[in-house]
Each structure stands twice: as structure tokens, then as C-alpha cells.
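Ticket #190: bound-state structure for shikimate-3-phosphate.
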Amino acid sequence: MLKRTLVLVGLMGAGKSSIGRRLAVRLDTPFHDADQAIEEAAGCSIADIFERHGEAAFRDVERKVIARLIDGPPHVLATGGGAFMDPTTRAAIREHGLSIWLRAELQVLLRRVQRRSDRPLLKQGNPREVMSRLMAERHPIYAEADMTIDTPDALHVVVVAEILRKITERPDADDIIADPGGLDVAVATA
Ligand code: S3P
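RESOLUTION: The complex was predicted; output attached.
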């Protein structure tokens, strides 16, 4: 039923993977996680790629993996926080997908990223300072996304319903989802 790939962008801890997975279930469509695809392509973890080859090498792989995924059949795609900063990746997403920025406040992001300790960028300094700097650098670029969804500490089902509601309200909804009028946008526990 999906005609364009829905690409979730936003900072670490914004909920791109968990919300993306749920959104895909709701739309009965495949889900891909770019970070996971990068790890499969490289045969090692993202932390290992950063450590052994550096961030620039990671960004190269990230660009190639996302180009491959976005070129495939429509699906829900969760990207890593830095992916949308790349102009080539942004152009590919603009051409083939619909970008959705999951925006969250610093406090919310910091609380969520505490659950995992494998994010190399957050080890480069005090997480609050790193995240504040990334917010300042990246928010103006994330703002170029086709849609912005605020993600307060709401349940994922609520955020998914909000994404679907906003898509169905768009004038080009027919180009994104087949029969958007038939979509039940009420909060559902899919
Ligand atoms: C990064 C975010 C991570 C991962 C890598 C770099 C970033 O993904 O791609 O550690 O530059 O913000 P998540 O946003 O899924 O944590």
C-alpha cells in the first residue's frame, strides 16, 4: 500500500528504529534499519567501524547502504542520526522517499540514549554537550525534511498515529499511500 519509502530522520534517541518498526507493521510493509544494514554489510558493529576506520569511512558506507535501500521497493527506513546531514543522501531521499523528522527535546533524547552505550559519538565527550552541539548543527538540516513530528515521551503508538494522520492530510497523500482515505488513523495497538 506504500508508494514511497518513509524515511525517519532525527537525532540519536529520537525513536527512529522503534517507531519505524511499529509504523511498518501498521502499514503492513517491510522495515529496514540503515544502521543494522551497515553492520551487516561491514560484518562488524558501528562502534568497530568508527574505531578501526574512523567516522569518514563509516559515512561512506552509510551513504552507499542508504542509496541501495532507498532505490528498492517502498518500505519504512530508519536512518542513523547523521545520515540526513549528507547532501547526496538527502537528495536520494528527496527523490525516492518522504522524509519524516522525529523531533525531541534534549532531556528526552538524553534519557533515551542512556539505555545503550554503543554509540561512538556519545563517547567523544560529555553526552549532554555532544548532544547539544549535534542539535545546534543538525536541527536546521533536519528541518528540511518533508514532515516534522514532535515526539514527547508519548507511547510509540501515539507517534505512529500522528505520522499517519499527517500523511493523510497532505495534498499529495495519494502519491505516498494507496487509498489514504481508507487508512484508520486512530491510535491502534498494532
Ligand atoms: C550517529 C547515530 C547512530 C549511528 C552512528 C552515528 C549519528 O544511529 O548511525 O553511531 O551521527 O548521530 P542512531 O541515530 O540510530 O543512534
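RESOLUTION NOTES: The chain is about 50% helix and 10% strand.
TICKET STATUS: resolved
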